[in-house]
Amino acid sequence: MANTDSIIKIEHLTKSFGDKKVLDDINLEIRRGEFITFLGPSGCGKTTLLRLLAGFLRADEGRIVMEGSDISELPPHKRLFNTVFQRYALFPHLDVYDNVAFGLKLRKTPSDEIDKRVRKVLKMVSMTDYEDRDVNSLSGGQQQRVAIARAIINQPKVLLLDEPLAALDLKMRKDMQMELKEMHKTLGITFIYVTHDQEEALTLSDTIVVMNEGKIQQTGSPADIYNEPINSFVADFIGESNILNGTMVKDCEVSFIGHTFECVDKGFGENVPVDVVVRPEDIYIISQTENAKFTGVVKSCTFKGVHYEMFIDTDKGFEMMIQDYNQFEVGSTVGMFIKPSDIHVMKKERTCNTFAGVMTSPTSVRFLGAEFECRECGLKEGDEVSARVDFDKIDLLDNKEDGTITGEVNFILYKGDHYHLTVVTDDGDKVFVDTNDIWDKCDLVGINIAPEHIRISKRV
Amino acid sequence: MSTRRANWAIPYFIFMLLFVVLPLLLIVVYAFRDNSGSFTFQNFVKFVSQPEAINTFVYSIGVALITTVLCILLGYPAAYILSNKSLNRSQITVVLFILPMWINILVRTLATVALFDFVHIPLGQGALIFGMVYNFLPFMIYPIYNTMQKMDHSLIEAAQDLGATPGEVFTKVTMPLSMPGVTSGIMMVFMPTISTFAIAELLTMNNVKLFGTTIQENINNGMWNYGAALSLIMLVIIGATSLFADSGDSQDNEAGGLI
What is the pLDDT of residues B110-168, one digit of tens each? Predict the structure, then answer.
């Protein structure tokens, strides 16, 4: 269905609001006729990217090329895009017919043609007979249909949709998803869709662009993104997953949760720390323990409609989530194994915190905007150094006044036996922390580092 | 419980009865009586047959219309600029425009007289229109500003998105959506200007007579019945304007505050 030739090329697009970089060097090619989704948590820059495409915002750097010509500086009314807005943005002073006909009337289309086309698109969105209705008297779902009709009547080359279903209830959302997909097939035009709902993205898209903090994390088909997440953020954001620390022993052999598994990944090197992702539905669970790869005790078992969701404490003290059609008694000992192809190994983005710093005396170092005591290491004041701190050697404190610096918990990843937190300091730097304590997102914390855990090396 | 709640309205009800309904009834009763107290249409016949009274009346409406139109012409762009975030970033400018409303209308008018005197501009018709517009302009700006301020910005983006040039965005979206504010503004300006007399007296040295002045003179001279009839006529005119404004208003609920 989707052609291979590209309709839009986004090159090095960067946008900041004040000091905050919302989009950071975005490069993307959008193919003609595809259904592409920008997916990410709120504040990841996906809506900004859409607004840049629509022309409501201007980029600081980079350009948008459509069919060979640069449209970065084109005002919105000259772009061949139409947008379906999140809050519909229907004109309250016009009825359904005039809302839908708005674009055609601006183009001075003959009125009998307007008539014909309005009727056609209203039929397409199942809103026939609503022509004379006041838009304020319509339900959310009906308003959304009118908004879609208003956009597609202009036969745009690209339809931009900004979380169009976010305000609808679950049942309605599911129905509209199917209708949108159907509509995409019938119209054959490019749909660019923005959502934070990973399930919606997986259902609708030909291509998903996963974004976080202004950067594209991964681009690929829904199956690729789901089965081969490129990093732990994508794995955590798309679907349920067990994300664990592991070590690549050698090619096709990885050890995690205290066992060594056969896998299909190669080329990481020997004894390299890696992240391992296993989807909960990919772990096979049996009631015998003799032939199992590893064993565990069922801690909880919840019925989820199609499957049961279980949390299991493994023999080596890790917690894993497993989904299975069969129910297993809480407290019973079970055996488990994982197919080599279901083990996804990812390169670790980092293995410890590395901060750039300056020695302020032979036993103190300045980094992250504060002074920390450290061990004597033969360096003198003014030397530029790298300070390394292991994830688990950073202390987080409830009372932020007690910390040398303060920060906010920004992202939490459960790794089977501990939490991996991303803490953003007041200056916007990131500190990665492994901890057994439970923190919530947006908790304000104090950060301390003991002198003996700061490893100093001279920067070259 | 519900009956007790209803009781809370009683003081207001009595107040309205005493200070709104009763005086209105008295105006109607006085308007249809002569000096001796018997029923008559004489007061209205006198108004219709007296060219001077009718002239004043027409003149007053003319002044009110000119004032209102000037207020719209000056106030609409001002409100547009004030509400547009890319043109005006500060709330202080808004306050500066509204500030004259905090000062008593008579004080402001006396100051205008002094000012005209100072720069040697003769008082008269021009000064009257100036004084009227100056006094009532904030009442036009504020409701329009309010409606524009509340307008959903995504509607403007939607219009641009559908191919509207900046000019078309204004004529097809911004303007129609700001009409409730304009209607409120017209009511706030037209109704008081038609009945005002203090501004006219001060700014024209009593040379120009407005309808308000005529009513005041008649009542001051003890001609209560004729004065009441004139008041009734004015009341009907104002009532008609507000009915017209109301019907425009009910189309849309985003009316612009103040009333």
Answer: 988 898 889 988 888 888 899 899 889 989 998 999 999 888 889 999 999 999 999 99
Domains of chain A: 6-233 (3.40.50.300), 241-347 (2.40.50.140), 353-458 (2.40.50.140)
Distance (Å) from the C-alpha of residue A72 to the closest C-alpha of chain B? Answer: 15
The answer to whether B157 contacts A54, with C-beta atoms less than 8 Å apart, is: yes
Q: Are strands A384-389 and A353-361 parallel, antiparallel or unpaired?
A: antiparallel
Among the listed residues B210, B190, B191, B187, the one whose alpha carbon sits nearest the alpha carbon of residue B200: B210
Interface of chain A toward chain B, CB-CB under 8 angstroms: 54-56, 75-77, 81-83, 85, 87, 89-93, 102-103, 106-107, 150-151, 154
Q: According to the model, what pLDDT value does residue A410 have? A: 85
pLDDT for res B2: 58
Q: Name the residue with tokens 């090197």.
A: A269
ipTM of this complex > 0.85? no
- Across B181-205, b (16+ Cβ under 10 Å) vs e yields bbbbbbbbbbbbbbbbbbbbbbbbe
Q: How far apart are CA A72 and CA A375, in angstroms?
A: 53
Give DSSP secondary structure letters for B175-235: HHHHHHHHHHHHHHHHHHHHH--HHHHHHTTT-S--HHHHHHHHHHTT-HHHHHHHHHHHH
Task: Please write the tens of the pLDDT for every residue from A168-189.
Answer: 888 888 999 999 999 999 999 9
CA angle A269, A275, A281 (to 5 degrees): 125
Cβ distance A106 to B172 less than 8 Å, yes or no, reads: yes
Whole-structure pTM over 0.90, yes or no?
A: no
Given an 8 Å threshold on Cβ–Cβ distance, is B160 in contact with A93?
A: no
**Is B172 within 8 Å of chain A by CB?**
yes
Cα B22 from chain centroid (whole Å): 24
On chain A, the residues whose CB falls within 8 A of the CB of B181 are none
Q: Read off the DSSP letter of residue A454.
A: P
pLDDT above 90: percentage of residues in chain A? 50
Does the beta-carbon distance from A106 to B173 stay under 8 Å?
A: no
User: CATH for B54-211, among 3.50.30.30, 3.40.50.12160, 1.10.3720.10, 1.20.1260.10?
Assistant: 1.10.3720.10
Average pLDDT in chain A? 90
> Rounded CA gap, A422 and A221, in Å?
28
Domain ranges of chain B: 54-211
Mutation for B interface: A106, A114, A121, A192, most B CBs within 10 A:
A106
Sequence-distant (6+) residues with CB within 8 A of A15 are A21, A22, A23, A45, A48, A52, A57, A59, A60
